[in-house]
Design goal:
81% helix; single chain; mainly alpha
Length: 258
């Protein structure tokens, strides 16, 4: 398998992962893993490790871009992140006790449905409306919702970015840009934790696929985040929805129609 072929596959995977991260806070693992497994015949555990590593810098640069444009809620994001990390462990432990309950297509179908939702029913909440919520109530909501997201992600094994975006917009009432900015901020640390644990357990991954995926995802996440922060809310909703629908359809095709 030539380096050029690896580059093409990783670059294409990085386009999908980067756009999903920059527009919607989607985990790169949802796109990169099936691409590496299907086209590079990579061992699944190693593929997930590379995907998580790609997610770290892509989410970090996206979070920086959203934060620079004042579309990031750091305080409540930290509360939610702590509860997500803790309850991911709880969900993983419970899942290990109940064999056969993991839903492999959970993340993919959530991506499709959330994309359709943003197109059909855009999130038009304003920052002024967000500011009307009592700060203590917001912290409590962030804690409880983080527990729910973490448990579901640990139990199912996927869907963290999509779950957070759905809860931030649908339950906590965030406007879309702040929801995505807060989601990628949280995903930076969850992806870092996941990548380090994968590499510690499974060893160092293949160098070139790692480098190609990280750089491609970083590039396209930066492009998507910059566009998203300048876009009109209705345009951003539809662009985000279109990206999610396309990515969901592409992942379904790669997974079920090899």
């Amino acid at each position: 398998m030539t380096i050029f072929y690896q580059f093409i596959i990783c670059f294409l995977a990085g386009i999908g992962a980067g756009l999903g991260t920059g527009f919607a806070g989607m985990s790169a693992a949802a796109v990169i893993s099936p691409m590496l497994i299907t086209f590079l015949k990579m061992e699944p555990y190693a593929a997930v490790g590379i995907a998580l590593a790609s997610d770290v810098l892509a989410s970090a640069v996206s979070a920086y871009t959203y934060g620079k444009n004042k579309n990031l809620d750091v305080k409540n994001g930290l509360v939610m992140m702590a509860s997500v990390l803790c309850f991911t462990l709880v969900g993983s432990w419970v899942s290990s006790l109940v064999p056969g309950t993991a839903m492999g297509g959970f993340s993919t179908f959530m991506t499709l449905l959330l994309g359709v939702k943003f197109i059909v029913k855009p999130v038009m909440t304003t920052k002024e409306a967000m500011g009307g919520v009592d700060p203590q109530k917001r912290i409590l909501q962030s804690l409880l919702c983080g527990m729910a997201v973490g448990f579901i992600c640990g139990f199912v094994g996927a869907g963290g970015g999509m779950m957070m975006l759905l809860i931030l917009t649908g339950v906590l009432g965030y406007e879309l840009k702040t929801a995505v900015g807060t989601s990628v901020f949280i995903m930076t640390f969850t992806a870092l934790t996941g990548a380090l644990s994968h590499f510690a357990i499974g060893g160092a991954p293949e160098l070139w696929p790692l480098v190609f995926c990280v750089l491609s995802t970083l590039l396209w996440a930066r492009i998507a985040a910059r566009f998203a922060n300048k876009a009109d809310p209705i345009v951003l909703n539809r662009a985000t929805g279109a990206v999610l629908v396309l990515l969901g359809a592409a992942i379904l095709f790669v997974n079920y129609f090899p």
